[in-house]
């Protein structure tokens, strides 16, 4: 059977690495990681998260890139093709379909948070963040959120920019935008960390992030760490698999995976080191929830020399990071409509954009008129987050490792990964035993069946 020819390929050697790092590094690192680390109590959570990245994240990312490149298509088609090459059960393609849906659902709430970052970049400039207490800043955040028009408009702006870039195509849209956004992001981050290092007040934040407290290791925290490991590396959401389908044959999957995972982890830890010192220095609680960076950091920026410049830089950085991730979440759906149904990328972007905006408006309403529309005690925004991170990603991840670890002929993955014997054996051991067992244990425990 002849292999499928790629329809699109990254143009430059760095295309995949930049795009995949762009996908990985996002609000997950700068917004979600700090606030859930705060909620789950610091160092213990960080350690569980790092463990999940190593034991599950890296092997799964390699598997996803390999599946994408082998199948040369959007998640559903790529998996269908690889499975067909193996005479396997065609139902496996449902895993690809679920991943695509997961990426799409994440984007529906992600645009709201990205909208906060866009809005705050602007607010930094126009002086609306000139309040002098954390309470006053919390008030600014609340006022922003109580207006569905304001919140909705910013979310729509994010959605439109994302769709516009994706509509232009893999090379002219995605690759060209990450080629300047990612270096820009790196520069902004380095400037901010440089500032944090010289401004003192580091030790308390450092301690919070890296002091291990065994009493904080709970099943619930572990499930959160697992979900976040998937989220932060963009796994089981179609993004990495689709980007992998554009990867030229000669490039090493293992090496690119390590670069992306290390970059993502460094950004999360650096963001933590930039944010927690500020929070403690101002007597805030690290468990302030989703508004954490928006209610605490502007205050610190005001007290710094050139604070406005740093503030604009910070929120612009968050905006760019969010945008390169948002692009990757919708790429799978657009690629699917384009490849499978022959719809042009522009039309595919418009069609998915209409649905995206409709659902994201419901998510946005969770912060104002829909705050009380609750299911299982969660509003719609929280439900989207919960269902994707706690259920769809771990479930997609475990199915994917079962597929590559047990159901595919072993020469297929070996052929794609091209690892030395020992490296391949290690990878296979991880996807066969370590990742699925860990995911399963975490799941069963969360369901209350193991009780630790
Ligand atoms: N990895 C992104 C972040 O950390 O912000 C979030 C994400 C991107 C999740 C793309 C899923 C995805 F498909
Ligand atoms: Na991330």
TrEMBL record:
<feature type="transmembrane region" description="Helical">
    <location>
        <begin position="391"/>
        <end position="408"/>
    </location>
</feature>
<protein>
    <recommendedName>
        <fullName>Transporter</fullName>
    </recommendedName>
</protein>
<feature type="transmembrane region" description="Helical">
    <location>
        <begin position="258"/>
        <end position="284"/>
    </location>
</feature>
<dbReference type="InterPro" id="IPR000175">
    <property type="entry name" value="Na/ntran_symport"/>
</dbReference>
<feature type="transmembrane region" description="Helical">
    <location>
        <begin position="178"/>
        <end position="202"/>
    </location>
</feature>
<keyword id="KW-0813">Transport</keyword>
<dbReference type="Pfam" id="PF00209">
    <property type="entry name" value="SNF"/>
</dbReference>
<dbReference type="InterPro" id="IPR047218">
    <property type="entry name" value="YocR/YhdH-like"/>
</dbReference>
<dbReference type="InterPro" id="IPR037272">
    <property type="entry name" value="SNS_sf"/>
</dbReference>
<feature type="transmembrane region" description="Helical">
    <location>
        <begin position="222"/>
        <end position="246"/>
    </location>
</feature>
<feature type="transmembrane region" description="Helical">
    <location>
        <begin position="429"/>
        <end position="452"/>
    </location>
</feature>
<feature type="transmembrane region" description="Helical">
    <location>
        <begin position="94"/>
        <end position="119"/>
    </location>
</feature>
<feature type="transmembrane region" description="Helical">
    <location>
        <begin position="349"/>
        <end position="371"/>
    </location>
</feature>
<dbReference type="GO" id="GO:0016020">
    <property type="term" value="C:membrane"/>
</dbReference>
<dbReference type="GO" id="GO:0015293">
    <property type="term" value="F:symporter activity"/>
</dbReference>
<comment type="similarity">
    <text>Belongs to the sodium:neurotransmitter symporter (SNF) (TC 2.A.22) family.</text>
</comment>
<feature type="transmembrane region" description="Helical">
    <location>
        <begin position="149"/>
        <end position="166"/>
    </location>
</feature>
<keyword id="KW-0812">Transmembrane</keyword>
<keyword id="KW-0769">Symport</keyword>
<keyword id="KW-1133">Transmembrane helix</keyword>
<feature type="transmembrane region" description="Helical">
    <location>
        <begin position="43"/>
        <end position="67"/>
    </location>
</feature>
<feature type="transmembrane region" description="Helical">
    <location>
        <begin position="304"/>
        <end position="337"/>
    </location>
</feature>
<keyword id="KW-0472">Membrane</keyword>
<feature type="transmembrane region" description="Helical">
    <location>
        <begin position="12"/>
        <end position="31"/>
    </location>
</feature>
């Amino acid at each position: 059977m002849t292999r499928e020819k790629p329809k699109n390929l990254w143009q430059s050697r760095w295309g995949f690495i930049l795009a995949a790092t762009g996908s990985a590094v996002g609000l997950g690192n700068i917004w979600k990681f700090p606030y859930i680390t705060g909620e789950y109590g610091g160092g213990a959570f960080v350690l569980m998260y790092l463990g999940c990245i190593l034991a599950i994240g890296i092997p799964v990312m390699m598997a996803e890139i390999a599946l994408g490149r082998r199948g040369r298509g959007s998640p559903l088609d790529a998996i269908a093709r690889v499975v067909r090459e193996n005479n396997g059960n065609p139902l496996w393609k449902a895993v690809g379909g679920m991943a695509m849906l997961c990426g799409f659902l994440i984007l529906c709430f992600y645009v709201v948070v990205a909208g906060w970052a866009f809005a705050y970049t602007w607010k930094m400039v126009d002086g609306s963040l000139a309040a002098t207490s954390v309470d006053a800043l919390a008030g600014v955040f609340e006022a922003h959120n109580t207006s569905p028009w304001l919140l909705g408009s910013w979310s729509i702006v994010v959605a439109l920019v994302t769709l516009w870039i994706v509509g232009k195509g893999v090379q002219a849209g995605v690759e060209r935008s990450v080629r300047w956004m990612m270096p820009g992001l790196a520069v902004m981050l380095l400037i901010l960390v440089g500032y944090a290092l010289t401004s003192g007040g580091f030790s308390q934040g450092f301690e919070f992030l890296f002091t291990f407290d065994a009493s904080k290791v709970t099943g619930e925290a572990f499930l959160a760490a697992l979900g976040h490991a998937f989220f932060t590396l963009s796994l089981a959401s179609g993004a990495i698999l689709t980007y992998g389908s554009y990867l030229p044959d000669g490039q090493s999957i293992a090496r690119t995976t390590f670069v992306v995972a290390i970059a993502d982890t460094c950004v999360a830890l650096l963001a933590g080191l930039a944010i927690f010192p500020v929070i403690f220095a101002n007597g805030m609680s690290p468990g302030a929830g989703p508004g954490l960076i928006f209610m605490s950091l502007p205050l610190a920026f005001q007290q710094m020399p050139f604070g406005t410049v740093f503030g604009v830089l910070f929120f612009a950085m968050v905006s760019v990071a969010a945008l390169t991730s948002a692009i990757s979440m919708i790429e799978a759906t657009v690629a699917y409509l384009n490849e499978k149904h022959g719809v042009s990328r522009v039309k595919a972007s418009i069609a998915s954009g209409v649905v995206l905006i409709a659902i994201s408006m419901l998510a946005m309403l969770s912060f104002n008129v829909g705050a009380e529309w609750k299911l299982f005690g969660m509003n719609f925004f929280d439900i989207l987050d919960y269902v994707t991170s706690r259920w769809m990603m771990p479930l997609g991840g475990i199915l994917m490792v079962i597929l590559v670890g047990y159901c595919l002929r072993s020469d297929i993955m070996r052929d794609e990964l091209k690892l030395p014997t020992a490296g391949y054996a290690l990878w296979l051991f991880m996807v066969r035993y370590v990742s699925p067992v860990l995911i399963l244990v975490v799941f069963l425990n969360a369901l209350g069946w193991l009780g630790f």
